[in-house]
Model the fold of this input.
Amino acid sequence: MTSLTETVRFFRDAANWVGSDGVPTRLLEHLRLSIVATLVALAIALPLGLWLGHTGKGGQLAINVSNVGRALPTFGIVLLAVTLLSIGSLPILIALVALAIPPILTNTFVGIRAVDRDVRDAAVGMGLTDLRVLRQVEVPMALPLIMTGVRTSAVQVVATAAIAPYGGLSEGLGVYIRNGIPQRRIGEVIAGALLVALLALAVEFLLGRAERALTSEGLKAPAARDVAVRPATSGSLS
Amino acid sequence: MRGGLLDLAWLGRNADDVWARFGEHVTLAVVPVVLGFLIAFPLALAAARRPGLYGPLLAVSGVLFTIPSIALFVLLIPFTGLSRTSALIPLTIYTLLILLRNTVEGLRAVPRDVREAAEAMGYTRVRQVVGVEVPLALPVIVAGLRIATVTTVGLVSVSAVIGQGGLGQLMLLGFQRQFPTPLVVAIVLSVALAVVADLTLLGVQRLLTPWDRGRAA
Done:
């Protein structure tokens, strides 16, 4: 079929691998935007989630943030941010960060709250300070869930960054889709979509590996059982 | 940028168009959830007792779930063009993981005592499933339907990139004209639709599971 040949032709054309519109440049732009957005979201949501979880405050808030986050149409939020704040990378970055916060915040909060009360009490009884209880007991035990939140956010950011060109930011792999559709360059469009899909799958896979590597050995067996009852929160979807 | 955040005069002039886009949005959200449930429910019934089937089903739907929607919409263009079908297929695919997982977990959470009691009372396998296990799993199954519906309502807009999108068309219009009103109206309607659909499903669940009403969250 023609679209397949067109796609193959796109990838085989050396001109598409160099310059400002080349695959490596677009891929790096996409990665840079995604990494910055995820790190900023992490810097905001992680301390907040740890604090709320450790003190037990604002549980309803953390859960509500996640529910509202799911109902928000990411497409509209990105376009509204750009319309209100002017075109450029900053409004897009703000929208990406806002969308990446809920999964990290909620999973961190739930993970810390789910730490067995007896374990926490034992740590306090042994004379650990608040900070050490958090660092040495609660965080290691909550790590699988925290990492699930980070993974969910990262994949979602990669997906939403592909919408950025629709908000006037000509960066990242979404440019191929944004420019290709009106000009009916189907090979370029399909290539862009394939690259976005592969990048999202790669991020999901690599962060999944990181989660397993970071999880304490002692937690691995029971964690496998917990996964089965975890509510549906993972994934990209935007 | 013009008209402030909400230009009511624009809304008055374009009420018919907004209403039509809202109608498209409802169709694009409801059809995938119904189709997804028709696919996921039988699969979940089959997979609930067979880990050998559940694992691969979960893996496949998980990979599909991870593919960004903008990519999946676009990847269907060679097959179904810039059509409504190209929007409906990915949206249906995204509901599968949520519906499959919640239905299987709901069925698996039915207490063994209850299952054994039904068997001891001479219930056939079909009656055990239809009369005992599915009703008891209903709160978890409906919870899955609620998540799938809210998620789908939020995703529909992205299909504006392939000329569909319901309210997503208004979002694109607002951005292209640097005019916030259509954007704000579309976002508010999309969130309102998600909330109403969520509460409706919760109400349906309470009607169907009167025994669970005291505990339902």
About this structure: The mean pLDDT of chain B is 93. The radius of gyration of chain B is 21 Å.
